[in-house]
Amino acid sequence: MNLEGTRVLLVNAEEEFCRATACALQEEGFIPMLAHDAKMALHSVRTASPAVVVADMNLPDLDGLELLRRVKSLDEDLPVVMITGHAEVLKAVEAMRASAHDYLAKPFQDHELIRAIHRAVAERQLKLKLKHLSSQIAANQGLTETMGHSDVIGQLIAEVNCVAKSNFSVVMVGETGSGKEVVARAIHQASLRAKGPFVPVDCGAIPETLLEASCLATKEALSPGRWAPSAASSSWPKGEPCSWMKS
């Protein structure tokens, strides 16, 4: 498995440990990210999307177990490897019960940490693939239930699965009532954006002069007297919505 470029978040108050471990990770092709307390770590989880977290049980501002719980509340599939002392066996057991992926007792060798990270990342990738497959199956079943069984629908499902993997814009052409929006929803459901909102936009119901402002909310389009987007539409996370526009 090629894990080069995988982000690993190291959470430890000991700067010397972080520097030495970061060097070992870089030699393996990982991208180490450093946090010296729980506050920095949680910020990195929210903004930098690490593939695995390696956290010490003892942090200056928060207990390691509480950090584990907060990380899991942000991303339940993000694997966390806890670092404990030999006298902290009970804490290690509690960490595993709290859904830690693994734990290492000090002192440990670099290769032990590398092996634990490899296992953690492999499990995360498997979980993400299974979730994506589940969403594809749900989308396929939805199309079959709505449009019926036929060779044409089978070909349509194959095309939906193909374009859902990409970031391309998709144009669908067909008569009114032929199921274009149903297919658009299936593409969204089978894509990596499935957790984001699906936003239908009926272009025929929006005056031509307001269309650009409604869809793009550009400063140029928002000249005096023109419609301004609502707080909800302007605060969507970047890249999250998948819009369906029809004329």
Features:
247 residues; alpha/beta; Rossmann fold; two-stranded parallel ribbon; 49% helix
Q: What's the level 1 CATH class of the domain at 7-108?
A: Alpha Beta
Helix content: 40-55%
Strands, count: 7
Query: Order of strands across the biggest sheet?
Result: 2-1-3-4-5
**The CATH topology of the domain at 7-108:** Rossmann fold
Would you spell out the secondary-structure blueprint of this structure?
Elements lengths: L6 E5 L3 H13 L3 E5 L2 H11 L3 E5 L7 H11 L5 E5 L4 H9 L4 E4 L4 H38 L3 H14 L15 H11 L7 E5 L5 H9 L14 H4 L7 E5 L1
Parallel strand pairs: 1-2, 1-3, 3-4, 4-5, 6-7
Helix pairs in contact: 2-3, 5-6, 5-7, 6-7
Description:
The protein is of the alpha/beta class. Among the domains are: 7-108, 3-Layer(aba) Sandwich (Rossmann fold); 197-247, no CATH class. The protein has helices at 15-27, 38-48, 64-74, 89-97, 110-147, 151-164, 180-190, 208-216, 231-234; strands spanning 7-11, 31-35, 52-56, 80-84, 102-105, 198-202, 242-246. The strands form two sheets. It has a five-stranded parallel sheet, with helices on both faces.
